[in-house]
Amino acid sequence: MKFSYSWLKELAKFKQGPQELANLIELHITEIESMSSGLYNYSGVVVAEILDIAAHPNADKLHLVTLDVGLGKRATVVCGAQNIEVGQKVPLALVGAILPGGELKPATIRGVESRGMICSGQELGIEEKSEGILVLPKTASVGRPVNEALDVSGDPILDLKILSNRPDYLSYVGMAREVAAVAGIKWSMPLDLNYKETGDASSKHISVEIKDEKLCPHYRAHFISNVEVKESPQWLKDKLLSSGIRPISNLVDISNLVMLETGQPVHIFDYAKVGGKKIVVRSAKSGEKILALDGVERELTSSILLIADAKDPIALAGIMGGELSAVTDLTHEIVVEVANFNQVTIRRGSKALGVSTDASLRFERGLTAYLAELGMRRTLNLIQQVLPKAVISKGDVSVGKSGLAVPTIECSTQGINELLGTKLTASQITSLLERLEFDVKSSGGKLIITPPPFRGDIKEMPDVAEEVLRLYGIDKVAEEMPVVAMLAPIANREVALADQLKDHLVRSGFTETPGHCFIGEEWANKLGLKVNDELKLFNPLNSSWTHLISNLWPNLIRFAPKFSEPVKIFEINSVFNPSGEVLPLEERSLSLFISGKNIDAYRQLRGVVEDLLSQVTGLKFVAVPGSAEDRYINVSRILAQDIALGSIEELSPRLATELDLPNGGVWAEINLSLLSGLSLDQQKFKPFSRFPASSFDLSVTLPLSVSAGLLVGDIKSSSPLVQEVIVFDVYQLARDKRSLGIRVVVQSNERTLTENEIRALESKLINLITTQHRGVIRGSGSE
Amino acid sequence: MEAEIKKIIEEARLAIEKSDQQSLITTAAKFIGRKGSLTEILKSLGSLSIEERKPVGELANRAKVKIEQMVREREAALGAAQHQRLMQRDTTLPGILPVVGHFSPITRIIRELIGALSELGFEVAESPEVELELYNFDLLNIPPNHPARDQWDTFWVKKGKDSKNSALLRTHTTPIQIRYMLEHKPPMRVMNLGRAFRYEAEDVTHASVFSQLDGFMVDRGISVAHMKSVINHFVKKILGEECRARFRPSFFPFTEPSFEVDVWFNGKWLELMGCGMVHPQVLRNVNIDPNEYSGFAFGAGIERLAMLKYDINDIRLFLSGDPRFVEQF
């Protein structure tokens, strides 16, 4: 809420300047969202220079004024002021400008279109009464916003954050009381609440019935006759304008002022329109309709609380008045309503109707019923001030509980000090709380604390401690490290694994590119995936973020085309799958992607996966046969200990091209939640042989149907002397054949292998390749 | 024979002059190696008469010494030339960087955050990103229809008959307090770092998917003084020793008293995080007696910390997958 510095000062009588006040508020009360000079935030009002003044063809007292509005543009407007001269710099509001009086509409004045309005100080809201237009200093820059050229220091406006437990901050009295307490100034109610009741009893004119006091705990009505609706006095208009509220008429302005001052919304009905001279507070009947003050007719449901007359709805309780019962220029008798409504009811109603007003904003934060009487007294006082002829009836018609059952809180000085880490005495605590109008009694070493009636938020000791601390000063609490028992930390295995893998991958040249966790149908369809409606969001932010993801790779691939080749990216994050329970199955996943020209992306990715998982016991890759239509080819499932951990898959060339990856790409996805539960091979030192190793190379031509993995495995298990089998070359031959270059490293732990032993092993392997794998040996030899 | 030796010396001179460092040894071996031409002559001396043997032998031995010397000279010359060449290296050329990848700045800052808190004995615990409404709101003292819920615009995943049967994308990492405290007994020091979600339009300072840190400590006699001390340690660890924190009154439904923490950073106060003493109702909700135990809790936006620390000006960059961004970290 926006607070005027001078208005707060008038109520709390502090000496601090605007900046000092802002500091006090920030450190003891609430956050300053912004602080401004207090000038109205005009839009579309610029500095313009008068170039030419001509007579209006159809009116003697009007002129046609042509102005330079900057950037080489000119505008011609109709102007009636007498103090204009060529060469003057003046504030020009262009059509569409926002002024304190509202938006400037296009106008044709006596047959000539006016493209704007040269403004007076009054029209800009900086003078009470103006004679003629405002002339700006010669130094003002043409075309610039007028604020820059106005030589008035406005009343500073502080926009304060309203904490959601403090509805009393939504009022000048509430905020001024806080400021006074913090500044150490004695506080007394600054509003004049006196008035004379000269009429007969209100109850002779109006009766009130509350159908359910849970929804409306308290309702006050007061009858007033002989009112005359007209413009408000300037002081009243100025107060409203400083809070950004547009003055309308005396009665409406008074109700708005009372709401600003006390926080209590007030509504005024035209008595003539209250059928049956009766007010009923009740829930709407389904299908009932009301034309609200904003001119919109709304159909209601039973969740909406209404103010009705004997028959029809006349207002949306706590939200907005009805158009038909509103005060007009013809109104002579009124009923003032000051009531308290249930905060949840108003909040639900406001949400259901999609209408939020200054009144509903206050009610839904939970006002105390105590405010109703204050609001009524101030309203009647102001009516008497502004409409001296009005006849105020005797007594409110008051229904329901006007007071709040104020809880008393019992706490000890020690308890408060222990929570705050302070050493305050009972009398220090008492005097701090008394500044906020708390009642504190000492009894048997305990403090019996009664919060003031406008504080519904104080319920237990920590609430009290917070008040003590705010006033004492949070900065005065000396820091102190806690003394605690040592605890052995519990390592989270999944978090540790994810962290290790990140290190490993970044060292291996991969870049971490985290994304969000949503997918939409369009992208899923492009990838040939189906979205699962069990993972659908109720309220997606946009059409491409409609479902939770079950894998990371679909979004990871999306980033790839932006990277220069070779692309090596990864992400570790959560993925979701339906579980049949309220919450989906949520697991941690790793996804990797490689793409690039002149690299064997598939083998590189497989190598990275082998390396990452090198310690997993019983790791296996199982090739899945594919077909010509597949979007994903060369699928290799990653398995260990009978658990499917994930897969490696290659984009089909067609899909890769569609995804803007002309050099193809390979992705892998590994379930880390499962992985972190697997047993790992213990890393053990392996004694190395004292005897030299030898190697020989085999160049083999194989039919494509024979897998290299199988051949390598067979060679490895052919003899205990085989230490290592390296495929150093793969060459695609014509038709359905390919050539492999295989290096076999042999070594014994017991002796140096003789030439004959090595040759014998070589022959054995050649035999194995030719007979069992239908291979043809193209050459062999040792280094 | 004499002429032959001279010819060998001549051949050797030419060959050695043409040799580089690699070929010099093989070149020398051609003449004075085990099978070298001069060695062959020396070997053949035995077949000569004593009169002939002596002058030719002397000649051949001198020739050997000469060739050895030429080899040494050539070696020295080549060495000097190589040294000269190496000295022409432009040492101001930029280095060739090793090919490694990049961590997301979120990972980097999360590691720092964990470091700063784990040295005070806080342990990492996690809670799900899709969370029960009950844990995200109700048990954190944010009742249905309370205006405080407006601060958390929510992505809903499942709307069931009550908050136990409704799932949402967690709006903060604070539900860890409920989940952890339901499972453990005090004393406890816990941090949760992870993603949170807000149903709101994105701009340079708002992202609908972002990361949060939530930490809390519960034990006997924990006070605001303890909280201030731990948070100040944390702030200095993350943003530098010269930083200091200031605490302002605020409101959160799950803490009482509640505070906003500002840091003095680059010459001004910046809002950094929220904190407060765990609300007694929250403790009761997880079966901990607020008369026996108290605690503090704090929460911070991780991207916001990273933005301050690394001068990042748009929160949307974090999940953009833009190489111009990620490759800087």
The strand count of chain B comes to: 10
Question: Approximately what portion of the residues of chain B adopt beta-strand conformation?
Answer: 15-25%
Tell me the name of the CATH class of the largest domain in chain A.
Alpha Beta
Mean pLDDT of chain A: 91
Number of helices of chain B: 11
Overall radius of gyration of chain B: 40 Å
CATH fold category name of the largest domain in chain A:
Phenylalanyl-tRNA Synthetase, Chain B, domain 3
Return the structural class of chain A: alpha+beta
What do you see in this structure?
- The complex is a heterodimer of chains A (783) and B (329).
- By secondary structure, chain A is an alpha+beta fold.
- Chain B has 329 residues and is an alpha+beta fold.
- Chain B has two domains: 2-87; 105-326, 2-Layer Sandwich (BirA Bifunctional Protein, domain 2).
- Chain B is 41% helix and 21% strand.
- A seven-stranded mixed β-sheet of chain B has the order 1-5-6-10-9-8-7, with helices on both faces. A three-stranded antiparallel β-sheet of chain B has the order 2-4-3.
- In chain B, a hairpin with a 2-residue loop joins strand 8 (255-265) and strand 9.
- In chain B, helix 2 (24-32) runs antiparallel to helix 4.
- Chain B is rod-shaped and about 125 Å long.
- The mean pLDDT of chain B is 92.
- Chains A and B meet through helix 2, helix 6, helix 9, helix 11 and helix 12 of A and helix 5, strand 1, strand 2, strand 3 and strand 6 of B.
Helix/strand layout:
The complex is a heterodimer of chains A (783) and B (329).
Chain A: E1 2-4, H1 5-12, H2 18-28, E2 32-36, E3 43-56, E4 59-70, E5 73-79, E6 89-99, E7 102-103, E8 107-109, E9 112-114, E10 116-118, E11 157-160, H3 172-183, E12 207-210, E13 218-225, H4 234-242, H5 250-262, E14 267-270, E15 278-283, E16 289-291, E17 297-299, E18 305-308, E19 313-316, E20 320-321, E21 334-340, H6 343-353, H7 358-363, H8 370-386, E22 391-392, E23 397-400, E24 409-412, H9 413-420, H10 426-435, E25 439-443, E26 446-450, H11 461-472, H12 493-507, E27 511-512, E28 518-519, H13 521-526, E29 547-548, H14 553-559, E30 567-577, E31 585-595, H15 601-612, E32 619-623, E33 632-640, E34 643-651, H16 653-658, E35 666-671, H17 672-675, E36 694-703, H18 708-717, E37 722-732, E38 737-746, H19 755-772, E39 776-782
Parallel strand pairs in A: 12-15, 27-30
Antiparallel strand pairs in A: 1-11, 2-11, 3-4, 3-6, 4-5, 6-7, 6-10, 8-9, 13-21, 13-22, 13-23, 14-21, 15-18, 16-17, 18-19, 19-20, 24-26, 25-26, 28-29, 30-31, 31-35, 32-33, 33-34, 34-35, 36-38, 36-39, 37-38
Chain B: H1 2-18, H2 24-32, H3 37-44, H4 50-87, H5 105-118, E1 123-124, E2 130-132, H6 133-136, E3 156-158, E4 167-169, H7 175-183, E5 188-197, E6 209-219, H8 224-239, E7 245-252, E8 255-265, E9 268-278, H9 280-285, E10 294-301, H10 302-310, H11 323-326
Parallel strand pairs in B: 1-5
Antiparallel strand pairs in B: 2-4, 3-4, 5-6, 6-10, 7-8, 8-9, 9-10
